[in-house]
């Protein structure tokens, strides 16, 4: 399935029986909306992503991979929407459209529910592990060199570090450790989640002029880059400025002009 010029996304759902012992012997907890610890019972969606380059002459080439887990408790009223909320931030970094993310999440939940009923191995489990395979494919365009296509590949190197990604991530032990810092969760994380994002597309390459280079990593923007301004109007790679703010959360300031971020 395609979404943006020069990019494709594919996904599938499956089970892996080898995951059953791990997810059903590890003491998991989740935090519900009032941030109260509760025992976890539900689905564990293991998101396995491959980042690929599809050239005109060759088959897909794997550039990188990543894996993260979203826990969906079936003991809360809005459990069907939980997975979508949990993965939206990361999958938007994959440049997936909102409708694509929503479809993926709901199809994954439907698959998990059917599997829990139809598969005898899973029917009595407290935690049903489900594998969600995602391919994020950068497609070489006609007239584009392989090097240029490789330069705009979507991969973890141009995203927020997974251990700092401000997704819900409420399934312990997989959630980022800083989510235990409630003041950060309420303030700085919400600020980060609502940062404006401009994605540089093939068809609007003039957006490259928003900044000559990122003041944090000192690299210039490329097609596919996500750019974000702070209130002082200084632009950065989105993943660079998010990581700066989270790593330097005691300072909460622009790395260029030291404009104070009030959260």
Automatic annotation (TrEMBL):
Entry-linked Gene3D superfamilies: Zinc/RING finger domain, C3HC4 (zinc finger)
Q: Which UniProt keywords apply?
A: Metal-binding, Zinc, Zinc-finger
Database matches in Pfam families: zf-RING_2
Q: Give yes or no: UniProt keyword Transport.
A: no
GO molecular function, a single term: zinc ion binding
Question: Where is the RING-type domain positioned along the sequence?
Answer: 214-258
Question: Which PROSITE patterns does this one have?
Answer: ZF_RING_2
InterPro entries, per the entry: E3_ubiquitin-ligase_domain, Znf_RING, Znf_RING/FYVE/PHD
* Protein name (record): RING-type domain-containing protein
Organism lineage? Eukaryota, Viridiplantae, Streptophyta, Embryophyta, Tracheophyta
């Amino acid at each position: 399935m395609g979404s943006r010029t020069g990019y494709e996304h594919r996904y599938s759902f499956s089970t892996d029986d080898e995951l059953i012992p791990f997810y059903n012997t590890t003491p998991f907890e989740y935090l519900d909306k009032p941030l109260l610890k509760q025992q976890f019972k539900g689905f564990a969606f293991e998101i396995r992503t491959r980042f690929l380059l599809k050239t005109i002459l060759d088959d897909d080439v794997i550039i990188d991979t990543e894996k993260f887990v979203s826990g969906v408790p079936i003991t809360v009223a809005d459990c069907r929407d939980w997975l979508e909320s949990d993965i939206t931030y990361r999958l938007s970094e994959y440049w997936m459209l909102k409708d694509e993310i929503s479809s993926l999440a709901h199809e994954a939940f439907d698959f998990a529910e059917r599997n829990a009923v139809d598969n005898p191995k899973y029917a009595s489990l407290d935690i049903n592990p489900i594998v969600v395979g995602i391919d994020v494919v950068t497609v070489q365009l006609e007239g584009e060199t392989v090097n240029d296509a490789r330069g705009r590949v979507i991969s973890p190197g141009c995203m927020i570090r997974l251990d700092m990604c401000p997704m819900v991530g409420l399934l312990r032990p997989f959630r980022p450790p800083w989510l235990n810092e409630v003041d950060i969760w309420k303030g700085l994380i919400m600020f980060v989640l609502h940062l404006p994002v401009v994605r540089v597309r093939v068809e609007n390459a003039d957006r490259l002029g928003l900044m000559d280079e990122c003041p944090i990593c000192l690299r210039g923007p490329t097609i596919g880059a996500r750019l974000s301004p702070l209130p002082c109007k200084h632009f950065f790679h989105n993943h660079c400025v998010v990581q700066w703010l989270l790593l330097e959360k005691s300072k909460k300031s622009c790395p260029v002009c030291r404009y104070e971020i009030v959260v």
